[in-house]
Amino acid sequence: MSGNACMQCGTEMISAREDWPLEDLPGVTLLGVEVRRCPSCAEYEVVFPRVLQLHQVLAAAILRKRSALVPQEARFLRNILLWSEDDLAQHMGVSPETVSRWETGAEPMAPTADRLLRLLVAPALPASLPPALGAPRRSPPDP
Question: Is 0.85 surpassed by the pTM of this model?
Answer without folding.
Answer: no
